[in-house]
Amino acid sequence: MVESVIGPCVEKLADYTIAAISRQFKYLFRYDRNIQNLRAKVQDLENKRDDVQSSVRGAKRNALAIKSEVVAWLKKVDDLKNEADEVLNSTNSEMRCLYQRRCPNLKTRYLLSRNAIKKTTAIVELQEEGKFDEVGVRTPLKLLSFHGSKALKTRISTKKVIIKALEDTDTSIVGICGLPGVGKTTMAKEVMTQVKDIGLFDEVAMVVVSKDAEIISVQDKLADMLGLTFDEKTNEYARASRLNERLTQDNKERILVILDDLWTDIDLKTLGIPPLSHREGLKILLTSRDKHVCEKMGALSNIEVEVLPREEAFVLFQDVAEIFNDATGLKDIAEQVAEECKGLPLAIEIVGKTLRNRERHEWRDVLNRLQHSQHSDRVYSSIQLSYNYLESDEHRSFLLLCSLFPEDQSIRIESLVRYARGLELFQYSETLLDTRNRAYTISDTLKSCHLLLSGDREEEVKLHDVIRDFCLWVASKGEHRYMVKRDLMTEWPEHDAHESYSAISLSFHKAIRLPSRLQYGNLTLLRLLETGSFASEMEIPKEFFDDMLELRVIYFYGVQIRSPIQLSMGLRTLCLNYCTLEIEISFFRSLKKLEILTFFRSTLSIDFHRNEMVELSNLRLLDLRFKKGPCPLPPDFLFGMKKLEELYLGYYNDTSYEEKEHIIKELRSLKALNTLQIITDDTQFLMQLLQACSEKLERFAVKRKKSGPKYRSVYLSGSFGDIWRDWMPPVTELDEDYFINLNWLELDYLDSEYLIDAAGSVPRGIFRNLELLELSNMSRLKEICNANFPRMEHLTRGVSQPALFYNLKDIRVSGCAKIKRMFSESVAKCMVNLQNLSLSFCMSLEEVVSMDTQENEITEPPSFPKLKRVVLYQLMRFVRFGSQPNAVGLRQILLNQVELPDMEKLTIRNLLSIEKILSMEETPFGSLNRLRVMDVGYCRKLVNIAQSNSIKLLKNLETLKVLGCSALNVIFDFEGLNVNKDDEKEICILGQLKSLELMRGDCLVHIMRMVPKGIRVFQNLKRLEVATCGRLKYLFSASMISSFVALETLFVHFCEEMEEIFGRDEEVVKEEGMASKIVFPELRRIELIDCDAAICSVHNPPSSSDCE
User: Fold this and answer.
1) Are 879 and 939 in contact (CB under 8 A)?
2) What contacts 624, CB < 8 A, 6 or more positions away?
3) Is the dihedral of CA 855, 857, 861, 867 positive or negative?
4) Mapping DSSP to helix (H, G, I), strand (E, B) and coil, where does residue 413 land?
5) Which residue ranges does the record assign to the Disease resistance protein At4g27190-like leucine-rich repeats domain (predicted)?
6) Which of 155, 336, 534, 852 is 20 to 30 A off residue 1093, Cα-Cα?
7) Which pLDDT does position 349 carry in this prediction?
8) At a CB cut-off of 8 Å and minimum separation 6, what does 644 contact?
9) Which residues lie closer than 8 Å to 484 by C-beta, 6 or more apart?
């Protein structure tokens, strides 16, 4: 009986015991397999981490907030990888027993094998956790701070009145009214900034409504500001309902909606704004030229923004025209000019910028013109003056051209280029490239004089609504008039004088029937846009163009055209975008002067024939990017276009081998071609295109199509471009002749370990003309060049053959997770023309220049003689610019062992490992002679900006900004500074510094400490701003007051512990004979917010008569 019970138990116990013992022996017997398996899993984990980090970078570029679970997962990955690396690194040590050298240490192998299995299991589980559908979420937009009133008393008081009205619980809608150009929008932006800063509202959304209010557009802008995404694309009522839900989902949330530039009253319910009586905490701020509009909208409080009084107008004018003293002898004339602007800020801005740096006789001329102006509107008079003062008719015509676009629209300069080319606006513009360069130059000039604004993107511009009104007013005078109307609903607008119009720009909200035989005999430009849902398109009648014989530019969007239609023989620009075209070849037969022809996103039904298409021999730009697939080109189609400069082919995949052969052959014949765009997945075709065109192209966009969630791309470009593909061998595996004339190279999402991987020496001539190199998201990249380099002495011996990277001017590297060093010393020696260096999101990068691994003969510090701008951003392990031998245990110095004699601007953000920026011992003397701007942010281990004698290296520094450096306790530490005691002459240090901004200095105790007697600092400092420095008790010692003779602006914000601006002399070497009278001769503005600081020490306060 007992045996029958005990027997199975013993047997079971034996099984468990044997299994456990067997498992322990497996740790020993499968040691190599377990270690190799762990190494493979670590590599898989790194790949997964790189993919997630790439997605994170993409989300950040799209302003998405990264999910906390993603951040936590990446942290777990780093921790687990470090633990796994410890196990793997331990396997490299000698695992031998103490007595028998050939006998493995079984205990060590056992422990390592067991740990390897544990880490492998943990890695597999962590990889499963890392399957994220999305890594980021969209959050409400963060408002940019806006300060535009320049401390003008009347503006400050008006702002207080508006904010007080918003604080009133009985007021839901507040209006801001005033003349055009008086500053209503500027005031609304300042109110927006301040109510957020003081916490009056949790969210603020500001949208421009403008004259031609389009409900869907306003809803889009409002949703963007509130972080709301619409699923409903065209139904404004459904969108209004979603906005209503967003604004009412939390009745405790305080929200301010600002509707700017209202021209007429609109129904708030139509926008999606709920009844304010039902939503506590929601308020509306309106701006309008018309007080009655605000009243109709229900504004109980309407505040008028008045023109500036004479004194404030002159202060603003001085700032804009940059007249800060009477040394120029212009002050008397400037006062009169400012008075003629009648206190209108827009007029002051325009006239002031026009007269900046002008001669005295030009000031007198402007004054005379203003005094004798016939126009009753002073804003228009001031704009007219600036308009007349433009240097050429080309500038004036270009500005008027911008008024053809809708109010508040961001205008693509490329569109203006095509219009200007067709109208022949510019002299001496033989090529399209000449026209484009001229257009960008004029755009910059117009922006500099405040007649154009920057657009939403770098290549776009905007018109202020008042400037646009002025341009249309100018265009309405004389023989040539503009007709500009938007969102017409029913029919072509009525008109009186058909012959007078030179340009017409009309947009229709829905398709209408267009009239026939419109008699516009002087019309040179016609823009027609159908902006509705495209359910039905406007159809062009047969006789529509019959009496438009002077037409030079046509831009159609969403229009339907059927043959037969006869166009003007003088037509030069024809843009048919998003159109439906059922035309015959005869449509183009007479267009012998046509230079620009585009079919972007259009559908086309046409039969091309070789003989008839040869007539387009004057064509310079051809865009064949149709909506559905490529346009089949017959053989020899391009041969007749000898002047063609830009060709956009679009998607070119499902085409025959013969057709591709013809294209390559014909592209070789186009000697003027400088721009090519094509999309294909034919790798061989891509390589043949490279071979055929790379020598002459300046702009090259070639994309390789690929399905799936992940893409690989390489960009070969003169100013843009992208080739999508799965592969990218090191470029030296390609024929080096491909890259002889390449001046711009961008690589993105590639698997290469090296840009140049040459077993022997680098081929001569490769990249010899390269000017820009951009590498992004290359997760496997280890080094830019893996090659033996010759020494660079030949560069100074008159050898004509340029070295590798000799002409390189701009380097940008971002998101390359594995790269630890940028260049070896020998590579760096080649870059004698480098001007810009930008490195970001390279998590393993430690240094820019490192010692050569094969050739360690170069002993002098590497030099970048022309490097002007350096940006180092989000580099977690970055510690130094150049190699630092025997650096273990030493503080890491950023600018060490490198000469930067021409550097003007240094930006460093989120460098988490650097402790010091400069060192007199390791930073070559004279290296920073031209450094003028330094921007330092979020370097958590940084202890100071400069210390002791290294402060002398910043002798030409003009601007310093320091933000969020949590370990920083002093900016400039003078302790240990060598001073010649025998020299009685006062020594000036930091004498060129004009602007100093210090923000979020959690541990900042001193700006300067231990300043020796005989040292004078900051004698040219004009602007000082200190914010959120909680431990700072005073800014400077009282003995330094006499140094601030140039100080104009002083801001101190949110410094709770601040007791006094100029404090006691406990931390400095006291200077005898401190002046008893405190004088700030140039100080114009003091702003103290949330701090109780006195101007000077409360221990020895001056009398009121001692302060000026």
Assistant:
1) no
2) 599, 630, 631, 633, 647, 648, 649, 650
3) negative
4) helix
5) 740-842, 905-1056
6) 155
7) 85
8) 619, 620, 621, 622, 638, 670, 672, 673
9) 403, 404, 472, 504, 505, 506
pLDDT band for 329, please (50, 70, 90 cuts). Answer: confident
pLDDT above 70 (res 238): yes
Beta strands 905-909 and 821-824 are unpaired
Residues 6+ apart with CB under 8 A from 412: 455, 459, 460
- How high does pLDDT run on average in the chain? 77
Compute the CA torsion angle 442, 446, 447, 452 (nearest 10 deg): -110
Chain centre to alpha carbon of residue 980:
47
* CA separation for the pair 598, 156 (Å, rounded): 52
Q: What secondary structure does DSSP assign to 859-928, as a single string?
A: -SPPB-TT--EEEEES-TT--EEE--TT-TTSPPBSS-S-B-TT--EEEEE--SS--BS--TTTS-TTTT
Q: Are 592 and 618 in contact (CB under 8 A)?
A: yes
How far is the C-alpha of 190 from the C-alpha of 348, rounded, in Å?
19
Q: Answer whether 301's CB lies under 8 Å from 165's CB.
A: yes
Of 274, 209, 121, the closest CA to residue 406 belongs to 209
Helix (H, G, I), strand (E, B) or coil at 855: coil
Q: What mean pLDDT comes out for the span 502-529?
A: 84
pTM summary value = 0.53
- Residue 45: in which H helix or E strand, if any? helix 31-61
What is the distance between the terminal CA atoms of the chain, rounded to a whole angstrom?
111
Using CB atoms within 10 A of its CB, is residue 627 exposed (0-12), middle (13-18) or buried (19+)? middle
Contact 770, 742 (CB under 8 A): yes
The whole-angstrom separation of Cα 434 and Cα 442 is 12
Residue in 1039, 1047, 967, 973 with CA at minimum distance from that of residue 1003: 967
**What span, in angstroms and rounded, lies between the C-alpha atoms of 252 and 454?**
38
Q: Residue 607: how many CB atoms within 10 A of its CB?
A: 9
Task: Quickly list DSSP for 234-266.
Answer: S-HHHHHHHHHHHHHS-TTS-EEEEEEEESS--
**CA distances (Å), origin 414, targets 158, 400, 721, 798:** 42, 16, 16, 42
Which runs of E-coded beta strand occur in 422-462? Answer: 453-454, 460-462
CA pair distance 681, 730, nearest whole angstrom: 20
pLDDT at 724 over 70: no
Per-residue pLDDT reduced to its tens digit, 248-274? 888 788 999 999 988 888 888 888 888
For 468-568, list the strands marked E by DSSP: 481-488, 501-508, 525-530, 538-539, 553-557, 559-562
Distance CA 517, CA 533 (A): 27
Distance of alpha carbon 567 from alpha carbon 556, whole angstroms: 14
Q: Which residues of 311-320 are buried (b: 16+ CB within 10 A; e: fewer)?
A: ebbbbbbbeb
Q: Which two tokens stand for residue 1052?
A: 């101190």
* CA atoms of 809 and 835, how far apart (whole Å): 5
Q: 613: which DSSP letter? A: H
The pLDDT of residue 1105 is 35
Range 758-764 average pLDDT? 57
